Task: inverse folding
């Protein structure tokens, strides 16, 4: 029933797996455990929990982040459906600057992605009516919000499906220019 923590090529970006206990009644799963995740959280605390539901297959949300000093770590889990979850490293001086990692998250695979401060986050819906749960280490600050356009040629994210149903805001985020040096 414990949480299995796996590293990715992007420092600080982790994939967490858990194994639900199942019997004739259904199942039980641990979604978060401060003791098991203390090595990742450090002295941070979860201060905000959000949930999103996205209806249409192919819809993209993101890629969003918050500028320092309001940068946040996010724990993202799919409660219903399936999504292609993406994190993009925007940290100045990072060995993986402008590299991205994607992970399929689903209600069935019980995976969670931990996205560190300085990384943008977004996802594409692979199954209709997908719901995500987000745990944040900083409250949302509209004045600190930043974004990367989903089809920016610099990171060149490979989305698995043709994009549909973008919000007007997400469709209009500016492209990075060649002089972008990171957060």
Result:
């Amino acid at each position: 029933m414990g949480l299995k923590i796996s590293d990715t090529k992007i420092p600080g970006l982790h994939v967490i797996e858990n194994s639900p206990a199942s019997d004739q009644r259904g199942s039980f799963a641990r979604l978060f455990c401060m003791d098991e995740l203390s090595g990742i959280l450090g002295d941070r605390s979860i201060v905000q929990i959000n949930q999103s539901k996205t209806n249409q297959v192919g819809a993209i949300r993101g890629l969003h982040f918050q500028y320092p000093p309001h940068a946040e770590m996010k724990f993202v889990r799919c409660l219903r459906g399936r999504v292609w979850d993406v994190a993009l490293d925007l940290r100045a001086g990072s060995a993986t600057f402008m590299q991205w990692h994607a992970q399929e998250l689903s209600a069935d695979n019980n995976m969670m992605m931990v996205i560190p401060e300085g990384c943008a986050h977004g996802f594409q819906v692979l199954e209709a009516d997908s719901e995500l749960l987000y745990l944040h280490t900083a409250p949302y600050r509209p004045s600190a919000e930043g974004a990367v356009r989903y089809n920016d040629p610099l990171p060149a994210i490979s989305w698995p499906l043709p994009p549909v149903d973008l919000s007007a805001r997400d469709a209009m985020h500016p492209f990075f220019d060649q002089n972008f040096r990171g957060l």
